[in-house]
Design goal:
- This protein is mainly beta.
- The protein contains one helix and 23 strands.
- A hairpin with a 4-residue loop joins β15 and β16.
- The longest helix is centred in the N-terminal third of the chain and has 17 residues.
- It is globular, with a radius of gyration of 18 Å.
Amino acid sequence: MLTRRALLAGIAAAAYAQQHNYPIRKRKKVERLFKSPDGNPNGLEATAAGLWCGEQVTDRAHLLDWETGQPLASYETQSSNTSGIAAGGGFVWMAANGPAGVRPARPHDVKKGGRIVKLEIETGRHVKNYRTPNGGGVHGVLWSQDSLWVTQFGPNKNVTQTDADLRVQHSFPVPLGRAHGLGWDGTHIWCMFSNDFRILKFDIESGQVLEAIQLNRDDPDPHGMTWWQGSLYYCDAGIAPGHRQNTSPYAGYICKIHA
C-alpha cells in the first residue's frame, strides 16, 4: 500500500527529475551594454523599432535605441512595481507586480496581487487594466504568436498564453521558482529564473524543458529578459524581492548574454 510519505517522496523525486533532466551549458560572457534611463530596469521586449524597457520604480515604459540606449519614446503608465514589459499587436503591456514599494503611492497602484496594464504603442494612451489570469503576482510578459505570454506565481507557477484581452488559451507549469523575463526565438520560449541564475528553453506545447543556460552568481542580477537576433538580453533592476537593494555592482544595466 502506498503511504502518504512515499507518495510525497515520489512527487518530489519526479519534480527533481523534471528540473534537472536537460542539458545545461554555461554562458560564455555577459556584456554590459548601457544603463536604463531611470536606473531600475525590470522588463525588456525586443522589437525592430527598438528595445522596450519597463522601469520598476518610476513605472515608465521607454523605447530605447539599440545602439546608444537613449530613449526614442517614454510613457507614464498605471503600472506599479513593474516587473515585465511586452510590445506587440499595437500595444505595450506592463506587468504590475503589486503595490509600489519604493516611490510614493499613486491612485492607480495595485493594492494586492498583480495586474496587466495595456497602452497604445504609438501614443502611450492608457487602454485598460486587467487582472492577471490567476489573480496572483506577475513577473515576465511577452508578445508572440499573436498572444500575450505571462509568467505567474501564487497560487501556481506557470507560463500562461492569453489573447489580447487576457483570455487564457494555454498554460504549462514551470519547474523552478521566481520565473521572470521571457524571450521568443521564433520557435521556443526562454524564461529567466532569477533565483537560480538560470534560463530555461521550453517547448511551448508540452512545456518540456529542452535546455538551459547557466549564469554565474557574480553576473548582473537577472530580472527582465528578451531575445533578439540570436541572442538573449537581460537587465539588473538593482532591487531584490521585498524592495531591498540587491547590492549588485551592475544595478541598472541592460546586458547581452554570449551563450
